Amino acid sequence: MVSFTPTDEQRMLVEAIHRYAELDVRPIAHEADEAASIPDAVIRTGWEIGLIPASLPEEYGGFGQREALTGVLAAEELAWGDLAVALKVMAPALVAYPVLMFGTEAQKRDLLPRFCEDYSPMTAALTEPGLFFDPLAMQTTATAEDGQFVLNGAKANVPLAAEAETILVYAREAGGEVGAYLVDRQQAGIAVGEREKLMGIRGLETYPLTLDGVRVDQARRLGGEAGIRFGLIQNYAHVALAALAVGVARASAEYARAYAKQRVQFGVPIATKQAIAFMLAEAAIEVDAARLMVWEAAWKLDQGQEATREATLARQYAANAALTVTDAGVQTLGGYGFIREYPVERWLRNARGFAMFSGLAMV
Predict the structure, then answer these.
(1) Which of these, 247, 308, 243, 227, lies nearest to 68 by C-alpha position?
(2) pTM for the whole structure
(3) Which terminus of the chain has fewer CB atoms gathered within 10 Å of its CB, N or C?
(4) Burial degree of 134 (CB within 10 A; 0-12, 13-18, 19+)
(5) Could you tell me if 209 and 296 lie in one domain?
(6) Total domains in the fold of the chain
(7) Claim to verify: residue 28 and residue 108 sit in the same structural domain
């Protein structure tokens, strides 16, 4: 029988992140959204919890091992605090975990120790602009030429691209497979556009990226000649996004429930009204159902089992659940739900983006 009872270490980690989310993140979440900027001190505090170092072996400067189930527990708590903060704290994992999974020994020894030091922005460029983006049919290409690879194409929604030291760029290779390339942001041919103005996650800086003849040495192809298993990377990304969606949905459901118990109309709390009570009950069901799907997919990944179906379904279900639950939160607050000072409208805006957040998170 599969058991999802957290270990003592997992429970301690979740408690630490919850304290961080409650005491450090939530108090600044509204102003960060309004100002489109997250205080550096909040990110540093989140980084000091040590999520990535706890996932890296001692030989690379870490003090643990990577587990997807632990990662999704952490991601849910971070997103419960605020999604933009969660994505920014987790952004370096977009490079760290693929390197840990598929990097050559030289790549691991060069890069992984950096994630055990102070917060160092590193990021990945996966999503491309356009309505019909398909990760398995990328327009960005990597062409072998004179012992190097030449990258050409355009990316969108690249977090922290303007300050990242290293960008992991995904591109379609000659055989149609997807490869990943470790690119220095200062290289010739890379152009970072103006910061994107988004509907949600306004505190997270994302940018478009253009690659025009960017030349990359073979040693900077992730995995060397062996390359990567892009499908497996996608599975870890799907469960990460699904866990974040659960965190956003849970935040809205808890807030709406508490509000409905306190808000009195016609002499009784609105939570006693059937329409409200049923909506809150459906929200609770959606949160728990999505969470269990996330845990199952993460557990299968940890067991080394094929989890593409579970990871894909978890992301799809959790994204829809987040949208349903956060919309219910706005409805529960009535007119107040449409006022920016109340967090439910921010959670709804953030939830709307999960359908297009490919490449923004990994556990």
Answers:
(1) 243
(2) 0.96
(3) N
(4) exposed
(5) no
(6) 3
(7) yes
Judge whether 264 lies within some domain: yes
Q: Which domain holds residue 243?
A: 230-356
How far apart CA 317 and CA 246 sit, in angstroms, is 10
Helix (H) or strand (E) holding 18: helix 8-20
Q: Which tokens sit at 228? A: 């990567």
Q: How far apart are CA 121 and CA 90, in angstroms?
A: 10
Claim to verify: residue 350 and residue 243 sit in the same structural domain: yes
* Pairwise CA distance, residues 335 & 353, whole Å: 23
* Length of the chain (residues): 363
Same domain assignment for residues 139 and 241: no
Phi, psi for residue 8 in degrees, rounded to 5? -60, -40
The residues that bridge with 148 in the sheet, in sequence order, are 145, 217
Residue 209 lies in a domain: yes
SS3 122: strand
Per-residue confidence of the chain (363 residues) as pLDDT tens digits?
567 788 899 999 999 999 999 999 999 999 999 999 999 999 999 999 999 999 999 999 999 999 999 999 999 999 999 999 999 999 999 999 999 999 999 999 999 999 999 888 899 999 999 888 999 999 999 999 998 999 999 999 999 999 999 999 999 999 899 999 999 999 999 999 999 999 999 999 999 999 999 999 999 999 999 999 999 999 999 999 999 999 999 999 999 999 999 999 888 999 999 999 999 999 999 999 999 999 999 999 999 999 999 999 999 999 999 999 999 999 999 999 999 999 999 999 999 999 999 999 999
What are the phi and psi torsion angles at 310 (to 5°)? -65, -40
